[in-house]
Amino acid sequence: MEKKIISTAAILGMIAIILGAFGAHALKKVLSLDQLNTFETGVKYQMYHALFLLFLGTTKTVSERVRKRVFYLVLSGVFLFSGSIYLLATNTLTNINFRFIGPLTPVGGFLLIFAWFNIFISILKKKP
Q1: How far is Cα 49 from Cα 18, in angstroms, rounded to an integer?
Q2: How far apart are the first and last CA of the chain?
Q3: Which segments of 26-103 does DSSP mark as H helices, in order?
Q4: Contacts of 14 (CB under 8 A, 6+ apart)
Q5: Among 100, 107, 56, which residue's Cα sits nearest to residue 78?
Q6: In terms of pLDDT, which residue wins out, 101 or 94?
Q7: Rounded distance between C-alpha atoms, residue 32 and residue 24, angstroms
Q8: What is the predicted pLDDT for the residue at 43?
Q9: pLDDT at 96
Q10: Are 53 and 8 in contact (CB under 8 A)?
Q11: CB 49 within 8 Å of CB 112
Q12: What's the mean pLDDT when you consider all of the chain?
């Protein structure tokens, strides 16, 4: 599981850097400042959680069960939260109206919060 978590963290981090550069250069010409800021929010949260997964993959503080649960919560949360933000921020560039996926953003955010909460509870329960 450790290798899976760390390699996923690396991929999410790499994609965040690529999307951040894409937003700063290519999208800068075609999106409003508001849309760019929204896109950047998705990139930031993806990178924060890539780093979180890097921590998760290298720590021995939490059990394997908790580690696995948190991994899937973060992966799903990033996909729903950042993924929906990317589509909503670039909505004007396509003929597809992505507004219907708007409700997925808070669901993804909840999954990310719940992942952090799981780590918190696991550490509180851990006996010295």
Answers
A1: 16
A2: 25
A3: 33-58, 64-89
A4: none
A5: 107
A6: 101
A7: 12
A8: 97
A9: 81
A10: yes
A11: yes
A12: 93
Structure tokens at 16: 């965040």
Cα–Cα distances in angstroms (integers) from residue 101 to residues 53, 55, 81, 87, 108, in the given order: 25, 30, 10, 8, 11
On whether the pTM is more than 0.85, the answer is yes
Q: Are 12 and 50 in contact (CB under 8 A)?
A: yes
Contacts of 112 (CB under 8 A, 6+ apart): 45, 49, 73, 74, 77, 78, 81
Q: What are the tokens at 20?
A: 């951040």
Q: How far apart are CA 1 and CA 7, in angstroms?
A: 10
- In which region does residue 32 sit, left (phi positive, over 0), alpha (psi from -120 to 50) or beta (all else)? beta
